[in-house]
Design goal:
With 290 residues, the chain is of the alpha/beta class. The chain contains ten helices and seven strands. Strands 1-2-4-3-5-7-6 form a seven-stranded mixed sheet, sandwiched between helices. The chain is globular. It starts with 6 loop residues before the first helix and ends with a helix. The structure holds uracil (URA). The site of uracil has 13 residues, from helix 4.
Length: 290
């Protein structure tokens, strides 16, 4: 949970924003997330886990037009975060599940909220079971619901580029969502749905033990941090979830619609890379021209 911030940290914020503007001015031509050609091995180890979607396929849910995801709130001065109880509570009974596979199985038969009635597959998440970095998105979309895997549609392709630009492969990180079932029409998750699903993500985070969490967009960031501010205000600054640093950034779906903001997201990802001790990269001239 974010602490209230004093004048000193506000001055530090202003200094940091000035530094960001300088970096943005230097990188303003670049708007892509193409992976660099030479990739170091920043993973901590562990074979990638692909959690099977345990739900037997049902007739596909009404396809529903993809509603905008991850749209940021109006920009403005950095606020003092308003503390509200986190949707994914940090003080709870210990998790009853001892493995990611077990969580995926339980998710696969979950009927705690009405979304089970319209899902085709559950989407528990996948990746390195001991990742240095965990990405948390909002909820499965149509492609994910069809395949039972997270971020496999257009937004997923951009997320793959973001991951690659940091020097990781998709198998080296873990990718999860706040909701494990698709909301019809890709609507924003309801608070009751987030509350029902929260124990799963919480248990996953406990087992994964990532060094850093990157929350993608409003619902993921707000659920993890228990704040109500929008992503425009929260991005670019580390908070924490149960002692794990959380870097909020724009959702890839939003970045597909607003490519000009990719350079801001790249600044956020670079902060993560810096914390992880990864080499900071400059995009190649070809990438700058994208
Ligand atoms: N958007 C999300 O938030 N999660 C996915 O898995 C896919 C799209």
């Amino acid at each position: 949970m974010s602490a209230l911030r004093g004048p000193q940290s506000q001055v530090a914020d202003l200094a940091r924003q000035a530094r960001e503007l300088l970096v943005q001015a230097r990188e303003s031509r670049w708007s892509g997330f193409e992976p660099p050609s030479a990739q170091p091995d920043p993973q901590r180890g562990g074979a990638p886990t692909r959690m099977p979607a345990a739900t037997p396929p049902r007739p596909a849910a009404a396809s529903g037009r993809a509603a905008p995801r991850g749209a940021p709130a109006a920009a403005g001065p950095r606020p003092v975060p308003v503390a509200v109880p986190p949707a994914i509570p940090s003080r709870e009974e210990p998790s009853p599940w001892s493995s990611l596979e077990q969580i995926a199985q339980v998710v696969g038969t979950c009927t705690k909220c009405p979304l089970h009635a319209t899902r085709t597959h559950t989407v528990p998440g996948e990746g390195n079971p001991k990742p240095r970095l965990l990405f948390v998105g909002e909820a499965p979309g149509a492609d994910e619901d069809r395949q039972g895997r997270p971020f496999v549609g257009a937004a997923g392709q951009l997320l793959d580029k973001m991951i690659g630009a940091m020097g990781f492969t998709r198998d080296q990180v873990f990718i999860a969502n706040v909701l494990k079932c698709r909301p019809p029409g890709n609507r924003t998750p309801l608070p009751a749905e987030v509350a029902s699903c929260a124990p799963y993500l919480r248990a996953q985070i406990e087992l994964l033990g990532p060094e850093i969490i990157c929350s993608l967009g409003n619902p993921a960031t707000q659920a993890l941090l228990g704040v109500t501010e929008g992503i425009s205000r929260l991005r670019g600054r580390f908070s924490s979830y149960r002692g794990i640093p959380v870097m909020p950034t724009f959702h890839p779906s939003y970045l597909l619609r607003s490519p000009a903001d990719r350079k801001l997201s790249w600044l956020d990802l670079q902060q993560i890379m810096q914390r992880l001790g990864l080499p900071l990269r400059s995009p190649s001239p070809a990438q700058e021209n994208e």
